[in-house]
Amino acid sequence: MRLNKFYILLLTGLSLFSCKEDDDTPQFEERDRAEQAIADDEAIREFLETHYYNYEEFENPPEDFDYTVRFDSIKDDNADKTAVIDSDKLMVKSVTRDDVEYNLYILRVREGEGVSPKIADSTLVSYQGELLNNSTFDNSTSPVWFDLTRLISGFSEGIVEFKGASGYTVNSDNTVTWNNDFGVGAIIIPSGLGYFSSPQEAIPSYSPLIFNVNLYRVNEADHDNDGIASYLEDLDGDGVVMNDDTDEDTRPNYVDSDDDGDGTPTRDEIIINEDGTVEFPDSNSNGTPDYLDPDTFQ
Prior knowledge:
It comes from Salegentibacter chungangensis. By secondary structure, the protein is an alpha+beta fold. Helix content is 18%, strand content 25%.
């Protein structure tokens, strides 16, 4: 009996000790997104007010110019440079995520002459990623294909404001020379449209990000090959295709070959014309196209 009583007391002591240890352990508390959006915007605007980009090189390109945006501080020998905030190439795009409105800053030095991507397309991009302190966390001087549905929303929302090149030449050594009219610029992203509280390699939590980008080519994506371009499967028009799931089967429509889950593939409930345009029949005239209506099937 005494042993049992001692055992109970020991367990109680351990429990209390554990609780005390837990109470002393600092708990992570994520910052409020709306408050962080304000702080990030202030930090970004300060950067834009105290930095310039190499606009003079774009105005008179040297022979070996790579058409890449570079930022530097306005001070000393550069004290007379025009701040990015005062550039007529700078635009501010409002983007709402998680009920918070963010300012996304886009320096569109050259829009481009080719095709403009939609929010779910694939893009061929060269880039350099930087923090506001000008430290580089990633870069690729060779163009890389990016599926915009797999990137941070700030990058995707920014790159759609550019266009690719109007064409290219394949050289005898199989390298590609792009027409010199591809999109060039920079995207300055608040942390809420980036990684927010999740630190990445060389990117601390709550870091605004800068991507200097060149956009060369765009491919319209149809991830599930159902005949409907992926960007058209953003049914609520919020710029996010991952949250549109008509049949609630955990597969968003853009990767679901049977969007309404009625057993008839989406491709069989639409009409694809010879010119590539798509029609959406509504057999029962209830305002919902067949491919989204589980009550209309074959």
